[in-house]
Amino acid sequence: MQRNEELYKGKAKSVYTTDDADSLILLFRNDTSAFDGKRIEQLDRKGMVNNKFNAFIMEKLQAAGIPTHFVRLLSDQESVVKKLDMIPVECVVRNIAAGSIVRRLGVQEGLELTPPTFEFFLKNDELGDPMINDYHIQSFGWATADQVAKMKELTFKVNAVLKDLFLAGGMLLVDYKLEFGVFHGEVILGDEFSPDGCRLWDVETREKLDKDRFRQNLGNVIESYEMVGHRLGIHFD
Ligand code: ADP
Ligand code: TMP
Ligand code: ASP
């Protein structure tokens, strides 16, 4: 399968059309961004690591009955996916308080959240991805009530699968962000799941192993992503 024209260039990935109207190619670049794109740097190997990491996770989710856009790896930095009409919201589940919820609600980082909490954010960098609720999504026509319910259901299903997967590798799944889209009328998981869009802590030391290493200038960003992958049994070379 070949790349045709560039449909969209995001902060970390580029999206290309193909000869098949239902398929796209995602190119995972080395660009690493934080703070809604205010900071962007190139990190060696990052595109390849996230592409292979995402393929592994999407296949696990698919096997657990969660519909995903992932079709197959095409090359080190490219994957074939189903072309979705993306719903412009981000679905976040938090098992442990970290990041924006600590700032917004003044809670302690590390607080265990029982039950895990759920938040929607509008995907809009200019506005700084503001938090929104179910009503906003319906009132502004971003998705229907049924689609909102489906996104929540699938996002929690992902939690059940991935919490155990990461724990088996000695890691806590602190939180994560998912994006969904519609394919022939069905809501399915799109975009990516990688250490760029989740928080992972070592279960013993609570060391941060995800993109917070980049956001907080902790160093060894990609080394850490690769270590996470190795702990799950992913081979990168
Ligand atoms: P961003 O847009 O946040 O900068 P990326 O750099 O990751 O993010 O760009 C990838 C873009 O592709 C995102 O806007 C995402 O919503 C979109 N996307 C992901 N999967 C699909 C898909 N299967 N079909 C259509 N668009 C997709
Ligand atoms: P937050 O603490 O900044 O709200 O983020 C929660 C989780 O979702 C964290 O793992 C990072 C991820 N996330 C993204 O990857 N992109 C985004 O635009 C947002 C808002 C969150
Ligand atoms: N992914 C978003 C960005 O690149 C948010 C973040 O990770 O901080 O700006």
Describe this structure in words.
By secondary structure, this protein is of the alpha+beta class. The chain has two domains: about 5-80, Phosphorylase Kinase, domain 1 (2-Layer Sandwich), CATH 3.30.200.20; about 85-220, D-amino Acid Aminotransferase, Chain A, domain 1 (2-Layer Sandwich). Helices cover about 30% and strands about 35% of the residues. The chain contains six helices and 14 strands. It has helices at about 45-65, 100-105, 135-140, 145-170, 210-215, 220-230; strands spanning about 5-10, 15, 25-30, 30-35, 40, 70-75, 80, 85, 90-95, 110-120, 130, 170-185, 185-190, 200. Strands 8, 9, 10, 11, 12, 13 and 14 form a seven-stranded antiparallel β-sheet that branches. β10 and β11 (about 130) form a beta hairpin. α1 (about 45-65) packs parallel to α6 (about 220-230). Adenosine-5'-diphosphate (ADP) binds next to β2, β7 and β12.
Derived structural class = alpha+beta
Bound molecules: adenosine-5'-diphosphate, thymidine-5'-phosphate, aspartic acid
Average predicted confidence as pLDDT:
97
Largest sheet: 7 strands, antiparallel
Fraction in helix:
25-40%
The structural domain count equals 2
- What is the CATH superfamily label of the largest domain? ATP-grasp fold, B domain
SSE order, as H and E? EEEEEHEEEEHEEHHEEEHH
Low-confidence stretches: none
Number of helices: 6
State the separation between the terminal residues, measured CA to CA.
22 Å
What's the CATH class of the largest domain, please? Alpha Beta
CATH fold annotation of the largest domain: D-amino Acid Aminotransferase, Chain A, domain 1
For the record, the CATH architecture of the largest domain stands as 2-Layer Sandwich
The gyration radius over C-alpha positions equals: 17 Å
Beta content comes to 25-35%
Task: Please tally the β strands and state the result.
Answer: 14
Dominant shape: globular
